[in-house]
């Protein structure tokens, strides 16, 4: 089953449940979080909660997407209570991409010297998949922002005036609601674009935190249930309607150096991320970047990310802030 959030022609919100090619609104529900809260209160899973409510009106999701009526797959009435976070160096091949970004001239170094990125990746290979029920090694982790920085499918992804790059990262994200007792409850998984500034990151690895403080997008649909062990999708960039770059990407645990459970543990082990009522969109990493192939994006370029298991593709154009002076100070006033 897949879930999405839309608005109708009158502007009213609905949750849409899709099984196969058939999609219907969920009666009496206006948000995925409202649906999740109802399921938790009833002590049953999302599918049972949805089926117990019957079928509402039929929905053409493709038409809703074309008309710009598909919302982000999850949101919160107070966007400050939605956390955008992620982890990197988790996929087989991801270290090669990152290592090529961070490697410095090594004439004076030993031939076998490894970057911190490669060392982190090797730690994941060695101990990212624990077989005894205990947690494995912790991964790289980063913060992207809150719900104010989550772009809806089809909406422009803003790139600030001071950005040096505007690059996509095709990923899978886990979608979570924290229950009243502090238990993280996974709603499902969605496609995500973990939009980043790779030129800033490449200048100095300590700029990674800066490079990640950008918008992200997710959706359009949430896959309810377990993440397939093998996910194969495509990531492309269009400019003026023409494809200027395209490449497949892989995800799922068969293609990862960590288990999903291990990545979830190392995020939710922090008390601050288990506050009742909070929503989390946590991205699991990628090994595919157009930046690694020398692509420099421009204002108006369109990102497209798709994988068959996740339904509709995730599409977002870039909107570069070309009007603000990037050298102008943000002034603080003393009270």
Features:
335 residues; alpha+beta; 10-stranded mixed β-sheet; 5-stranded mixed β-sheet; 29% strand; globular
Q: Which geometry do the CA atoms define?
A: globular
The number of helical elements comes to 8
SS content category: alpha+beta
Head-to-tail CA distance between termini: 53 Å
Q: Please provide the count of β strands.
A: 15
Low-confidence runs: 105-111
The main β sheet shows up as:
10 strands, mixed
Question: Can you write the helix and strand succession as a string?
Answer: EEEHHHEHHEEEEEHHEEEHEEE
How much is the radius of gyration in Å?
A: 20 Å
Percent helix range: 10-25%
Portion in beta strands: 25-35%
**Arithmetic mean pLDDT:** 92
In short:
With 335 residues, the chain is of the alpha+beta class.
Written description of the protein model:
With about 325 residues, the chain is α+β, with helices and mostly antiparallel strands. It contains 8 helices and 15 strands. It has helices at about 30-40, 45-50, 60-65, 95-100, 115-125, 200-205, 210, 260-270, and strands at about 1-5, 15-20, 20-25, 80-85, 140-145, 150, 155-160, 170-180, 185-195, 215-225, 230-240, 240-250, 280-285, 300-305, 315-320. The strands form 2 sheets. Strands 1, 2, 3, 4, 5, 6, 8, 9, 10 and 13 form a 10-stranded mixed beta sheet that branches. A 5-stranded mixed beta sheet has the order 7-15-14-11-12, with no helix packed on it. Strand 11 (about 230-240) and strand 12 (about 240-250) form a beta hairpin.
């Amino acid at each position: 089953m897949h879930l999405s959030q839309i608005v109708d022609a009158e502007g009213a919100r609905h949750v849409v449940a899709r099984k196969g090619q058939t999609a219907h609104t969920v009666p009496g529900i206006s948000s995925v979080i409202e649906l999740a809260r109802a399921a938790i209160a009833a002590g049953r899973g999302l599918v049972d909660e949805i089926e117990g409510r019957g079928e509402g009106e039929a929905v053409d999701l493709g038409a809703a997407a074309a008309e710009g009526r598909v919302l982000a797959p999850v949101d919160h009435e107070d966007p400050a209570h939605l956390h955008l976070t992620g982890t990197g160096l988790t996929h087989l091949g991801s270290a090669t991409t990152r290592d090529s970004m961070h490697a410095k001239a090594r004439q004076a170094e030993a031939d076998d010297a490894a970057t911190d990125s490669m060392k982190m990746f090797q730690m994941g290979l060695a101990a990212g998949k624990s077989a005894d029920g205990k947690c494995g090694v912790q991964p790289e982790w980063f913060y992207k922002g809150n719900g104010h920085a989550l772009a809806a499918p089809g909406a422009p992804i803003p790139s600030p005036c001071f950005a040096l790059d505007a690059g996509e990262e095709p990923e899978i994200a886990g979608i979570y609601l924290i229950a009243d007792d502090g238990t993280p409850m996974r709603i499902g998984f969605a496609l995500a674009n973990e939009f980043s500034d790779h030129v800033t990151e490449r200048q100095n690895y300590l700029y990674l935190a800066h490079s990640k403080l950008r918008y992200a997008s997710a959706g359009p649909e949430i896959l309810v249930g377990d993440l397939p062990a093998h996910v194969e999708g495509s990531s492309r960039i269009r400019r003026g309607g023409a494809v200027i770059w395209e490449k497949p990407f892989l995800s799922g645990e068969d293609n990862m150096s960590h288990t999903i459970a291990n990545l979830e543990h190392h995020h939710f082990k922090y008390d601050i991320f288990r506050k009742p009522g909070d929503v989390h969109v946590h991205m699991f990493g990628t090994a595919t970047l157009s930046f690694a192939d020398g692509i420099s994006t421009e204002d108006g370029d369109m990102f497209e990310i798709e994988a068959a298991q996740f339904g509709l593709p995730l599409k977002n154009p870039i909107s570069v802030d070309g009007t603000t002076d990037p050298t102008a100070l943000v002034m603080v006033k003393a009270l």
